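Late entry, written up from scratch paper. The run itself happened at the end of the previous shift, but nothing got recorded in the book at the time, so transcribing now.
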Amino acid sequence: MKKRILTLSMTILLVLSAVLTFSACQKPDDGKYVVGICQLLPHPALDAATQGFMDALKQELGEENVTFYNENAANDASVCTTIITNLVNKNVDLILANATSALTAAVNGTAKIPILGTSITEYGTALGLDNFNGTVGGNVSGTSDLAPLTEQAQMILDLFPEAKTVALLYASGEANSRYQVKVVGEYLKSKGITVLDRAFTDSNDATVVASAAAEAADVIYVPTDNTAAGCAQAIGGVIGDTPLIAGEEGICSGCGVATLTISYYDLGVATGKMAAKILKGEAKISEMPVEYAANFTKKYNPIRCAELGIDTAALEAAGYVAIEMPAED
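Output as recorded:
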């Protein structure tokens, strides 16, 4: 009899535990949502993408209906992992992963919570997907900041027709950067340009490698590289009078002459609209293809151009727009 009572008691406890656990995981269907954000580092481009995402989601769902946990990893991939773990433990309704390291951490952290990436150049490369066809599947989708790479490469030839040697400067650990310089390098080689591969390990040796690249090349190209973005000003301080073409506006404003760039705010808005569809049950994330920026703008850095004696009137005649530089203190 005691054995039967004990067995019955244990059964009741297990059932109660399962019910309580199930209840804790359920969210009331009250139109209220909690969204987690993991951004790799503070930077104008990534900041703009996050802001656009939040603004769009508040507009789509109602500001009073969405709560954000907005976390920044200060350019430390291990911190991305910690942030994602915390967001998963909070049982958020959706995660925005801003930049590749954040996306990788999110994918490794949960297979259930919907994950939208943004500021990701190429999802197949970032996630190690073979034969990527535009849709990641599972619980992952998002937006890409991939610019027309061959057009960026041609920009180098158009602006600096006398250039014979171009250095490709990027962080060796960033898969998306390696993808971009491969495409740009192949295009330049096809035009008879000598290409120098100049990879740095992290921000600690970026300026050393950048300085050497400036000595060896006529022009430097930097892709949409998060590590370079975090130390763009420092790179600009060591490259002297060697012009630099950047993959996006934020890097260009720190050390570049010109860029062919997207609006990262608009990219964030597009990601926010995707999130709203997922949260409202209007779309399945597993079926959502990655979205790409619709528009690209040629921009130039007026300060850097003035330092190098580049004719900005000619740039504007060619369709370039001046970057709004931050006011100096």
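DSSP finds 14 helices and 13 strands in the chain.
(Scratch paper discarded after transcription.)
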